[in-house]
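Just curious: can you write whichever protein you like plus the matching structure tokens?

***
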Amino acid sequence: MIPHERPLRECRLVARFDRFVADVEFDDGSIVKSHCVNPGRMEGLVRPGVRAWVSPAPEGSKRKLRWTLELLEVDGRCVGANTQAPNRIAEALIRERLVPGLKRWRSLEREVRYGENSRIDLLLRGATDHLVEVKNCHLVYPDRRAYFPDSVSARATRHLQELAREVAAGRRASVLFILQRTDATALRPSRVHDPDFADAARDAARAGVRFRAVRIDPSPEGFRFDATLPVDLSDYNLEGPARYRSELDAWSGWKRRGPVA
């Protein structure tokens, strides 16, 4: 179990505003603005009234938003909502030698510059440097496949292209998806949401970049390693995913409200 950095407090989701703000309601009826650390649409997760959990800001912090949205309960299942959590989860799993293909290294470094203007999430030092790019995933469709991303991500596509160049230069590179829920049997690049990313993933794999995924069981107590998942880079019928995306539109994205007072 990987514990949360600070104890969580249960609440209810009221609404998501301006991408990075989520109103939540505590049991006493008070409504507060919390930091929503998620640049994507959070497809299917933005459901007013669902149980949620937030973490308090660190003691002494001067930030305006005193809470951070961490978990949401959807269809009886906890789903991780904080896209910063996967880096900490990935590091803990790799240090415990739990991820196949990422077990042989001598030292681990975080946020190391590489390429033209990027930072790698984790750098494993060994006989050959191994760059590990961590990606958060929370979208699972009724076909029991997880999909990444849930919106266009030019930044993620650029990362894949830079990793391919690093492999061509003699280094090793992996993309590690952290799925913050437990109901998927495999993970796919989402061609419905971002065909450029899907193409870049296939090109990167041909260049020698490895794709790995782990399934995490999040809870108010912490994160438990659940299983490894295959990453499927093959073609698939887009009709089902496109329909599923449309069905979840009402529970995705955010409302416009303006600057936080």
